[in-house]
Amino acid sequence: MSNVNIKPLADRVLVEPAAAEEKTASGLFIPDTAKEKPQKGTVIAVGNGKKDEPLTVKVGDTVLYGKYSGTELSFDGQDYLIMREADILAII
Amino acid sequence: MSNVNIKPLADRVLVEPAAAEEKTASGLFIPDTAKEKPQKGTVIAVGNGKKDEPLTVKVGDTVLYGKYSGTELSFDGQDYLIMREADILAII
Amino acid sequence: MSNVNIKPLADRVLVEPAAAEEKTASGLFIPDTAKEKPQKGTVIAVGNGKKDEPLTVKVGDTVLYGKYSGTELSFDGQDYLIMREADILAII
Amino acid sequence: MSNVNIKPLADRVLVEPAAAEEKTASGLFIPDTAKEKPQKGTVIAVGNGKKDEPLTVKVGDTVLYGKYSGTELSFDGQDYLIMREADILAII
Amino acid sequence: MSNVNIKPLADRVLVEPAAAEEKTASGLFIPDTAKEKPQKGTVIAVGNGKKDEPLTVKVGDTVLYGKYSGTELSFDGQDYLIMREADILAII
Amino acid sequence: MSNVNIKPLADRVLVEPAAAEEKTASGLFIPDTAKEKPQKGTVIAVGNGKKDEPLTVKVGDTVLYGKYSGTELSFDGQDYLIMREADILAII
Amino acid sequence: MSNVNIKPLADRVLVEPAAAEEKTASGLFIPDTAKEKPQKGTVIAVGNGKKDEPLTVKVGDTVLYGKYSGTELSFDGQDYLIMREADILAII
């Protein structure tokens, strides 16, 4: 898990996407259908949530999220996604 | 009913779709019309609900949901759907 | 009125549509115009309503609803519709 | 004014449209322009309103409403419209 | 100012549009550009407002409103507009 | 600054757009790109705000607003814009 | 960091975009993909927030924001962006 100094705002979360080979190792398999497929990643940083709504995910959680969720950015050669917690489907 | 270690977020629910032959056995029959047809499945895991709105469905409930609801994922060879509780029509 | 073991979720209602000949017997007639025409049916099961908003219709009520309301399903050879209470126009 | 046994749900209102000749007699005239023209009718039955918002119109009120408001239905040979109170422009 | 027996519902207002020549007399001039131009009129009747939101305009106020606001109706040969108070830009 | 007798309703504000040469004098320069450019003007009159939300801008403030904000009107040969406070970007 | 006399309204923030070469120096690299890429800048001035929702970012914060966020303006030869705080992704 990377250590980056980025503080997401409000209900946003910084996620480091899992490498492709890691998916098979964990037993998770994404079926090859026409439906949108979830992606897996690790939470690196979280915002403070919205008013009266603290976030549920924590730094270190492995999460599933939609394929087109979030905005890409990279730091020191590592790619990240910054997305809203509502784009996260589940913690695994 | 499968045992998986996935925690859906907020108002999301993890559902294991029923096999096709199980539909006839239970007497449920989906008519062949142009309308959207509900599907049947078993609730495997549930989120904590939204603020002040705990979920109604429980693990183990057999539920009906719309044909195009949810996002597919599979684990150890079993297909699941992760959807919002609002996509669930009824408990049977 | 049928007896089925289906619990609609939240503000949903299970309706058994009236047979076509029953419409004439009750004096209700749906004019043949371009406007959407309401349908008649009997409430078979109701959800618990949304937070702070219990449902108004009760099991046994005869209701009018829009022609394209709800999702079809059938059980033991009988067709039903599951719809939101907001799709119900009136109790007759 | 007709007497029908229909209870509109929530904020819905059952209206008996005025006959065409009645419009001239009352002095009301709808100009022939491209704008949507209001229609006149009599309130026959009203719902209980939404939570904390009782309805304003009462049975017997003569109301103006938009030309394309509501859903048509007829009972014992009389045509009615069932519409939301928000579709009613004014009481005259 | 006319005297008509029409009670607008909720946040609606009945406006008698000003005659075209009256505009020049008051010094108000609407520039001839591509932007939507406001119209001037007199408030004839007002609704009771929405829950907890009484109306601001009063009978007799001269108001400016958007060109395409409201629904036309006429009574005893006089044209009126019935519109929501939110369609009124200013009192002059 | 002009003196006009117009009372904007609710959260609306009457703005007198700055003349074109005044922009250079103040040092403000609007770059010539494809993005929407803000305009500068003086607040002439303000509404009472919405329920529980008094306005922030005051008569006399110089404000920046989007190029296509508001509705044009003119009075005694002077052009004004009437817009919602939410259309105002900043006070300068 | 520039010193300008502009007060953004409500939940708006004035940002001075970072120069292009500064991006490489800080180690931040924006990958060249089809996804929308975030931009970096410094907060120069902030509004008072919306009712009951003070802003999170402070003057001097370095922030990431979407490429098409905000409205351009320039003052004394320096370009700025004025945007809503919701358009800001993170503080770095």
The assigned structural class of chain A equals mainly beta
Characterize the main sheet of chain A.
6 strands, antiparallel
Q: Characterize the quaternary organization of these chains.
A: homoheptamer
Relevant CATH superfamily of chain A: GroES chaperonin
Largest interface: A-B, 23 and 21 residues
Order of helices and strands of chain A: EEHEEEEEE
Apparent shape of chain A: globular
Structural domains of chain A: how many: 1
Family (chains A, B, C, D, E, F, G): Belongs to the GroES chaperonin family.
GO molecular function (chains A, B, C, D, E, F, G): ATP binding; metal ion binding; protein folding chaperone; protein-folding chaperone binding; unfolded protein binding
Main location (chains A, B, C, D, E, F, G): cytoplasm
Subunit structure (chains A, B, C, D, E, F, G): Heptamer of 7 subunits arranged in a ring. Interacts with the chaperonin GroEL.
